[in-house]
Write a structure and sequence with these properties.
With about 425 residues, the protein is of the alpha+beta class. It contains 14 helices and 18 strands. It has two domains: about 5-125, no CATH class; about 130-425, D-Maltodextrin-Binding Protein, domain 2.
Length: about 425
């Protein structure tokens, strides 16, 4: 049965040059042994090539290891035809009466020449995406990072026409999942949903995290931003009604007040440590296995204060179980606009925002990267997605494409040296 081809690429140098000669650079359909592939010819093979001892002609036979397998013709306005038949049948179909030249013997020199000629072509990528895409979440199911990834996955799959699967790889403060994403091929089929801690903090607190944010990842978009709120238990500390009052109490009792966090290197830990350093006060750190149990202990009166996540603390503040003193964000929180920021409360240069970002592997082909950025932007700016992310108690105003990557790099440059100077480490 006839099939459409542009050329046949085989092992012998003469025949390779014959098959490729006269073909313009660009995609060509070829047969390599039993496989059919679309290749991209990076440069034309000139007819004067030292291995092209005769010009390719319509109906000229092409041989593999001395066995005639068909006829190759240069491309026309429509795909050239290739008959998988014997030499005599090929000649009959093509109208050629010439006797095919005998195949030259295969030698080490001819194979080396063939390899050099074949270096002019490279496999063309199939239309992307042609298989499912995965989003690695470096935390357990049910948390904010996981929820954000799942909110995005469904509409992204609809836009790309392929399944988008969320894969949870928790452990080591997100380092295990991030390292797994860093080992993936940079082909656009593996993305990772991380945040300020995975992309910035881990670069400072882990000696060997198994990945490097600047080297391994490129941000497609920052999905949301949130902030920690400095909160106290009003029953335990009824007089602490402002940030200034809190700092004064901490200075009066150096090292005595206790605070909780989701663990060493967590956003709450980093935010607190940086503020203590900025304000010139000290306190005792009590790490927990997650932010929720730490907030619960603050509500229960077992801790003195905490920079708790907005989504964790606002319900308790609204109910009167906690008192919010200040938010660590650049601007007042949309979910609690009556709460002043730390910057407004006497520390104008202090702001730490917790952002989530969807990233691809650095080195992903530019056309794939462009498609991902375009579709991720469409998803993050859609009202249904923004509404669902806002319902989590965070700011769903996205930062897209290059500005998102610029922010990640700027935060790396700012915070990694400061965290190291503060002596915060998981080692």
């Amino acid at each position: 049965m006839d099939r459409a081809w542009d050329a046949v690429v085989l092992a012998e140098a003469d025949d390779v040059a014959m098959a490729l000669a006269d073909l313009a650079p660009g995609p060509v359909r070829v047969r390599i042994g039993a496989a059919v592939e679309t290749l991209t010819l990076a440069a034309p093979v000139p007819l004067g090539h030292k291995f092209a001892r005769r010009a390719i002609a319509a109906g000229a036979p092409v041989r593999k290891y001395g066995a005639p397998i068909g006829v190759a013709t240069p491309p026309r306005s429509r795909p050239a035809r290739m008959c998988m038949c014997t030499t005599s049948e090929a000649a009959a179909r093509s109208g050629s009466r010439r006797t095919p030249m005998p195949a030259s013997p295969i030698t080490r020199r001819s194979l080396a020449a063939a390899a050099a000629t074949l270096a002019l072509i490279r496999p063309a990528r199939a239309a992307w995406p042609d298989r499912p895409i995965r989003i690695i979440v470096p935390f357990a199911p049910g948390g904010g990072t996981d929820t954000t990834a799942r909110i995005i996955a469904t509409p992204l799959a609809e836009r790309l026409g392929q399944s988008v699967v969320v894969e949870n790889r928790p452990g080591a403060g997100g380092a295990i999942g991030m390292a797994a994403a860093a080992r993936a091929e940079p082909d656009g089929y593996t993305l990772v949903m991380g945040h300020f801690a995975t992309h910035v903090v881990n670069m400072a607190v882990h000696r060997t995290p198994g990945y490097d944010t600047a080297r391994d990842f490129i941000a497609l978009g920052i999905t949301s931003t949130s902030s920690n709120i400095l909160a106290v238990n009003p029953q335990r500390h009824p007089a602490l009604d402002s940030l200034a009052a809190f700092v004064a109490a901490a200075k009066a009792r150096p090292g005595e007040l206790s605070y909780g966090s989701a663990g060493v290197g967590s956003p709450a830990h980093i935010t607190t440590a940086m503020f203590l350093r900025t304000a010139g006060i000290t306190a005792q750190h009590v790490p927990y296995r997650g932010g929720a149990p730490a907030t619960a202990d603050l509500v229960g009166g077992n801790l003195d204060f905490m920079f708790s996540g907005a989504s964790d603390s606002i319900p308790h503040i609204r109910a009167g179980r906690l008192r919010g003193l200040a938010a660590a964000s650049r601007q007042r929180l949309a979910s609690m606009p009556e709460l002043p920021t730390v910057a407004e409360s006497g520390y104008p240069d202090f702001a730490i925002e917790i952002w989530h970002t969807l990233s691809a592997r650095r080195g992903t082909p530019e056309p794939v990267l462009a498609t991902l950025r375009q579709e991720v932007a469409a998803v993050l700016t859609s009202e249904p997605v923004r509404a669902r992310i806002t319902a989590m108690g965070v700011d769903a105003t996205p930062t897209l494409a290059e500005p998102a990557e610029a922010r990640v790099q700027a935060e790396l440059a700012r915070w990694v040296p400061l965290i190291r100077e503060a002596g915060i480490s998981t080692e």
